[in-house]
Write a structure and sequence with these properties.
By secondary structure, the chain is α+β, with helices and mostly antiparallel strands. Helix content is 17%, strand content 45%. A hairpin with a 2-residue loop joins β12 and β13.
Length: 431
C-alpha cells in the first residue's frame, strides 16, 4: 500500500512538472526573457532590436537605446564596452555584455575573376599501372602513396612543380637508385621509399602516379579594402576536382575575367558561368590563402576594379543584424559589367563560429532567373547587400532548386582576410 502511495505521489509531481513546463513555454513574457542574449556586438552607428523592454544601461556614452512599444532598439555610439541589465517585472535580472566596435567599411565586389593556385607541393590525384617486363605495377601505390597525398620533398629537395619531380625520377631511374619521398596526408607527414620503373619500349622512368601542381577556375570578388588592398572572394574553399580535398596553397594569382556565356541551372543540374581570362592575362593580385570561407590576398596597387553602381566603401553588418526580407546581390552575367539583382533572405542564423551556411537566400529577380535559372557555379562570392550594408556572400546553390542557396556572413570573411582580427572573438561571445 505504501509503495502504491509513493508511486501516486511521483505521478502527480510529474504531471505538475509537465504542466509547469507547458505553461512557461506558452508564456510570452518568459519566452522573451529566455531569448534575450547574454552578450551583444554592435558597430558604431549600427542598431540591434530586442523584442523585450525593461533595460538599464551602465554607460550610455557607448550605447543608447530607444523603446518602441514592446521592442528595444540599441545603437552603438562609441567604441568600448558596457553592461545592460534586464529588470523584467518580477523576473530575475539578466546582464548583457555589450561590445561596440569601430565601424568597418569595404568596397563591395561582384566582378568575375580568374583564379590560379599553385600548391604547396605536388598533389597526387590518381594511380596508374606501368607495363614493365615484370608485369603491370604502380611504384607509387606499392610505396603506400595515396590519392590526396601532397608530395613535399624528394631526396631532401622541396617539390613545387611536376617538372621538378620528373627530373629527380629520371635521374634515380638512370642510376638505379631509390627515392626517399615525403608526403603530407592531412596534417600528418609520412616518409616512404619509392623505386621508379620504366615501361616496355619507353625511355622514361615513371612513378605510377597522376600528379598536379596547380588548380584553376573562375569565381566572384566579394570585397576589397582600398587602404590595405586586401580582398576576399568566393566565400568557400577551392577543392581539387579529383580528390575533392581542399587545395593547400603555396601562392597564386588573381586574374581579370570576362563572362562569355551562361549554362542555365536546372533541378538536379547546377548551372555554370563560362568565362575567359583577359587576353593579356592581366594579374589583379596575389592569392596567399585558401580557407573554408574563400580565397584571400592582396590586389596590385594600380589595379582598378569595374563596378559603376557600388564603387565606394560600405559598412558591414554583424550576423545578428541580418534580417529576413529583400536584399540584393552583385554579380556579372555578361562581359565584365557588375549588375545588381533582387533576392530574398529566407532565413538567417547568427553563428558563434565561421561557417559557409549562415543564410538561406532565394533569387526573386526575373532578369536573373531568365538568364541563369538562379544561382550558378561561378557566382560564389557575389556580395549580398541589405539596406546600405554588406551582409554576406553567396556560397552554395541547392542542387534540387537552383533559385535558392546559402550565403555566409561577411564578418567571417573580414576576419579571414585580416582586415579585422577581433571580430570572431567578439561575435563568438555574443552568440
Amino acid at each position: 500500500m505504501k509503495r502504491l502511495k509513493k508511486e501516486g505521489v511521483r505521478y502527480v509531481i510529474g504531471v505538475l512538472f509537465v504542466v509547469c513546463l507547458l505553461f512557461l513555454g506558452f508564456n510570452q513574457q518568459f519566452k522573451q526573457f529566455i531569448e534575450i542574449p547574454t552578450s551583444m556586438v554592435l558597430f558604431e552607428g549600427s542598431e540591434e532590436v530586442i523584442e523585450a523592454s525593461g533595460f538599464v544601461i551602465d554607460d550610455s556614452s557607448h550605447v543608447q537605446m530607444d523603446q518602441v512599444e514592446s521592442q528595444t532598439i540599441f545603437q552603438g555610439i562609441k567604441t568600448g564596452k558596457t553592461n545592460v541589465t534586464v529588470q523584467h517585472g518580477n523576473w530575475p535580472t539578466k546582464k548583457i555584455d555589450v561590445s561596440v566596435l569601430p565601424e568597418i567599411k569595404v568596397v563591395p565586389g561582384g566582378q568575375s575573376i580568374g583564379v590560379k593556385l599553385n600548391t604547396e607541393g605536388v598533389l597526387v590525384v590518381g594511380h596508374h599501372k606501368i607495363d614493365t617486363k615484370a608485369g603491370q605495377k604502380s611504384p607509387g601505390e606499392f610505396a603506400g602513396i595515396e590519392v590526396g597525398d601532397m608530395i613535399t620533398d624528394i631526396n631532401g629537395e622541396k617539390m613545387h612543380t611536376m617538372s621538378e619531380v620528373s627530373r629527380l625520377v629520371q635521374l634515380a631511374g638512370e642510376e638505379n637508385e631509390n627515392l626517399k619521398v615525403k608526403v603530407l596526408r592531412g596534417e600528418k607527414e609520412i616518409t616512404t621509399v619509392l623505386t621508379p620503373e620504366k615501361a616496355k619500349g619507353d625511355h622514361l622512368y615513371r612513378l605510377g602516379l597522376y600528379i598536379r601542381d596547380s588548380a584553376a577556375g573562375v569565381g566572384t570578388m566579394t570585397f576589397y579594402d582600398p587602404g590595405s588592398k586586401r580582398y576576399g572572394a568566393l566565400g568557400h574553399v577551392i577543392s581539387d576536382i579529383d580528390t575533392k580535398k581542399p587545395v593547400s596553397v603555396l601562392n597564386g594569382q588573381l586574374l581579370r575575367s570576362s563572362v562569355t556565356s551562361i549554362s542555365r541551372g536546372l533541378n538536379g543540374e547546377p548551372g555554370e558561368k563560362l568565362a575567359s581570362i583577359s587576353k593579356d592575362r592581366e594579374i589583379l593580385g596575389t592569392i596567399n590563402k585558401n580557407s573554408s570561407l574563400g580565397i584571400y590576398g592582396t590586389l596590385n596597387d594600380k589595379i582598378e576594379l569595374k563596378n559603376k553602381a557600388f564603387d565606394q566603401p560600405m559598412p558591414i553588418s554583424t550576423s545578428a543584424e541580418v534580417k529576413k526580407g529583400p536584399a540584393k546581390i552583385l554579380t556579372v552575367v555578361d562581359g565584365e559589367e557588375v549588375e545588381q539583382f533582387d533576392i530574398e533572405i529566407v532565413s538567417n542564423t547568427p553563428q558563434d563560429r565561421p561557417a559557409t551556411k549562415g543564410m538561406v537566400i532565394k533569387v526573386t529577380d526575373e532578369r536573373l532567373l531568365d538568364k541563369t535559372g538562379g544561382i550558378v557555379q561561378g557566382m560564389s562570392g557575389s556580395p549580398i547587400i541589405q539596406g546600405d550594408k554588406i551582409v554576406g556572400a553567396v556560397t552554395h546553390v541547392f542542387v534540387n532548386d537552383p533559385t535558392s542557396g546559402y550565403g555566409c556572413h561577411i564578418s567571417w570573411m573580414l576576419e579571414e582576410s585580416g582586415i579585422h582580427t577581433g571580430l570572431i572573438k567578439h561575435q563568438a561571445k555574443a552568440s
